[in-house]
Specification:
Shape: globular
Distance between the termini: 35 Å
Number of domains: 2
Mean pLDDT: 77
Number of helices: 5
Low-confidence stretches: 23-30
Length: 143
C-alpha cells in the first residue's frame, strides 16, 4: 500500500494535534513581566508550536525521491530522535511518575501500558498502547 503525500500530511497533522493539542488555542503572547514563577510550560508550548510549523513547512518542501546531503539527513534523524524522546517522556515517565526496572522486558512495558488508567492512554487501542510501550521500552534501553 502506497501512502499519498496528502494522506501523510493528514497523519502528521493529526499526530501533532494529538501530541500538542489544538494549535490555534495556544496563547503565543509573551508576558514581559517576570515574577518568581518559571513558565517552562509556556516556553515548551511555544517551542513545540514553532517546531510543528517548521516541520509542516519542511514536509511540504520535500519531494518524493529527493536526495539530501549527509549533514541534513543527520539533522533530521536527530530531530526525530529528540522529539520521540520528549514524547515518550511525557507519555510515560513524567505522567506515570515511575519507571519499570532496568531488567524489564518489552512484554513488561506492554502489560504496564495496557493496565494503566493514565489519561494519555484513554481511548487508545490495544495495538496503539503496544506500539507506545515498545517505543518506551526501546527508548529506555538507549539510556
Amino acid at each position: 500500500m502506497k501512502i499519498t503525500p496528502e494522506v501523510l500530511r493528514t497523519l502528521i497533522k493529526e499526530e501533532i494535534s494529538e501530541a500538542c493539542g489544538d494549535m490555534q488555542s495556544i496563547d503565543m503572547g509573551v508576558d514581559t513581566a517576570h515574577d518568581k514563577e518559571d513558565h517552562e510550560g509556556n516556553m515548551a508550548k511555544r517551542q513545540m508550536f514553532k517546531t510543528a510549523e517548521y516541520a509542516t513547512a519542511i514536509f511540504d518542501m520535500i519531494e518524493d525521491g529527493q536526495e539530501f546531503p549527509a549533514w541534513i539527513q543527520s539533522k533530521m534523524t536527530k530531530i526525530a530522535d529528540y522529539i520521540g524522546a520528549v514524547k515518550h517522556y511525557l507519555e510515560y515517565d513524567h505522567v506515570m511518575g515511575e519507571k519499570l526496572d532496568k531488567d524489564a522486558t518489552a512484554g513488561d512495558y506492554v502489560k504496564d501500558f495496557r493496565d494503566s488508567d493514565a489519561p494519555q492512554f484513554k481511548g487508545k487501542s490495544k495495538k496503539k498502547k503496544q506500539e507506545m510501550a515498545v517505543a518506551a521500552y526501546l527508548d529506555a534501553k538507549e539510556d
